[in-house]
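Quick illustration for those who missed Monday's session on complexes.
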Amino acid sequence: MDTIDLRSDTVTKPTPEMRRAMAAAEVGDDVLGDDPTVIALEERAAELLGKEAGLFVASGTMGNLVAQLAHLARGQETIAGRHHHMVLHEAAGHAVIVGASIRTLPEQPDGTIDLDEIREAFRDPTDPHEPITGLVTIENTHAFSMAQPVTPAYTAAVAAIAHERGTPLHIDGARFWNAVVALGVAPTELAGPADTVTFCLSKGLGCPIGSVLVGSREVIARAHRARKLLGGGMRQAGIIAAAGLVALRDGDAGMIDRLAEDHANARRLAEALASMPGILSPGDIAQPGDGPLDPSRVRTNFVLFRVDRDREAFLEAVRAQGVLLERFSPRQLRAATHVGIGSPEIDRAIDVIRSALDSTGRAAVTVATAASPA
Ligand SMILES: Cc1ncc(COP(=O)(O)O)c(C=O)c1O
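Prediction with pyridoxal-5'-phosphate bound:
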């Protein structure tokens, strides 16, 4: 019995086409600027998002870190959502490495932050008591709101507020391509208003390793220096960049368009879960309030929910039948769809979850454990 791993879209394995491309990749010393495959990936990413330049980095976390180092001076401050990955799950790199504070604002169930709150969060640069606001970030898709895709109009509105104050906008687009596909917009439209965007190759796009940061030549030059500082200068990195080039191919040859299947699978799973007694709304900004799970909240590849019984016992009951789910925030569970999950896997996951609900009793208790970092 194969395991159905719904913990995260980071569990994907490279496709045979990726493995072939990796084996055949032309490589060189990328620290010396000699790796043609890395250069090709960076150029392809920049072209797709309509920016001047790209930088291949080891992870989404490193993409966010080098962006912060490129944009911020020590002692400056970033405006971000309270639940953003950069705030909660990057080991406080903003403080430890960048030397910046973050002013966190509450997000709304659509994954956005109220525009007036953003306006009011800027510090007074003439007041020596205050840090200087040096960056605004948004997360797209926005994980804690059930991975809602955030629109180009909202992105442009945030950019206008930031730019009016001479402050850049960075998008943590770990799942940027899920947003592009869910909204049916051009990537250039979604990335256009931002100064930098980072997206992950290693999540829904199915690559084994890596993320790309894109922006102007000038800001990418600063990010390049920051990557070196972090020890992220890799040598024959074309071996891994080659998989990224496969993922970013147009149409069926690439991995972008197929994200629509992940979204449809997540929606179908949510529709089945919604009809099961014992499955509850995830609460918080993923779906405020109690009551049943609302499948229409599932617009990309996350299904967040709660159970009306002991979460650990339920997790163990599904695990025993070969289905893996992730703890997400103190009380929620997550099922994330990805290229390793097709329609038969969704059918089996539905059966297993139903049977686990039958075999675990309803209880008032849910055990709080650490939130998922990915
Ligand atoms: C929204 C978001 N940003 C950034 C990251 C960091 O990516 P990585 O795990 O590659 O460092 C993640 C990881 O899941 C994420 O969900």
